[in-house]
Amino acid sequence: MNIVDLHCDTISRLCNTGESLWENTGHFDIKRAVKSNMAVQFFSLFAMPSDWNTALRQILKQLDRFYQEFELNSDYLYLLKKYSDIEKSENKKKIGCVLHLEGAEALGTDMEILRLLHLLGLRSLGLTWNARNQFADGVGEGDEAGGLSLKGREILQEMSRMKIMLDLSHISRKAFFEALEHYDKPVIASHSNARTVCDHRRNLDDTQLRALAAHGGVIGVNQVSYFISENEGTLDDIVRHIAYIADLIGIEHVALGSDFDGAESTIMKGVEDYLVWEELLERKGFSRQEIEMVLGGNAFRVMEAVLR
Ligand SMILES: [Zn+2]
Fold it and tell me: Which letter does DSSP use for residue 82 in this model?
């Protein structure tokens, strides 16, 4: 079955380690991904929160790194900019790459920068990482965190117009609900789990999950152990999150968002472990159709709605 994964930090890791995208010691490389039936991988560009120009330079360097790897591996990768790219026959056996920006410090308040990054292939954006920035507060600001700024509302409208996907995984609870009101397309929470199952600030509570579903969105379940369980998490524990979310808001809102190369403490060894997921979900009583939806179908639906 085709796999769509809504979040990995592989590009910034490669910038730090100097390893290649074809083969490396991290969680994701092309060699393993091809064997695991990866259809689409979202690649995050990420700079630790800093001043806008420093962040922008880092993001541009990561983009350069991505493009170098992309050129070297164009037999295996294509850049997914429009949904119709998925349907092109030359792309059928390749991995679609969606470029994502995690935390929008690099944009400053200049829509020109957003438009240029869009020209370079950016198709997904999370306004914040954990900290507050010019657009919104992140989950790291705690229970009293604020919502969207005026600029935050403006950029959401611009993103919708430009057909850039909105990712709400790191944003504060207040900004989460406000963003849903100001962005008129389905959204993703690319790498989060259910807070009722595991009480971590990066997970979504039931009210957030219901709102996500009401706006046609999907949540990509995260396989980093501290988002899954207070103890040592297992693959079975991830399935508990999937089952819980499916019971609460419907299986059509569950997707995958590994967070590969974003944390040390992970449950999967890497992308090769996706090979066991079909059987894993089957053993837990999910139907073939439901498994197909979780592994890729639901994410395809949101991509199709936004990236038209
Ligand atoms: Zn993240």
Answer: S
Cα(158)–Cα(13) distance, integer angstroms:
30
Ligand 1: centre distance to CA 130 (Å) = 8
Output the CA 73–ligand 1 centroid distance in Å: 25
pLDDT of residue 38: 98
CATH code of the domain occupying 3-306: 3.20.20.140
Distances (CA, A) of 104 to 149, 277, 302: 13, 33, 21
Q: How far is the CA of 141 from the centre of ligand 1 (A)?
A: 15
Q: What is the pLDDT of residues 107-133, one digit of tens each?
A: 999 999 999 999 999 999 999 999 999
Whether 308 and 15 have beta carbons less than 8 Å apart is answered as no
pLDDT tier at 72, thresholds 50, 70, 90: very high
From the list 245, 241, 239, the residue with the least C-alpha distance to 208 is 245
Express each pLDDT in 78-101 by its tens digit. Answer: 999 999 999 999 999 999 999 999
pLDDT tens string 257-292: 999 999 999 999 999 999 999 999 999 999 999 999
Q: Give the span between the Cα atoms of 135 and 6, in whole angstroms.
A: 22
CA of 90 to the centre of ligand 1 (A): 32
Nearest to residue 27, comparing CAs of 286, 270, 240? 270
Q: Where are the beta strands (DSSP E) in the chain?
A: 3-8, 38-45, 77-79, 95-102, 122-126, 165-166, 188-189, 218-221, 254-256
Cα 216 to ligand 1 centroid, rounded to whole Å: 22
Measured at the CA of 275, the angle between CA 291 and CA 239, to 5 degrees, comes to 50
- Residue 291 is which amino acid? I
Q: What gap in Å lies between CA 133 and CA 141, rounded to an integer?
A: 11
CA atoms of 19 and 192, how far apart (whole Å) = 27
Please give the Cα distance from 109 to 189 (Å, whole number).
23
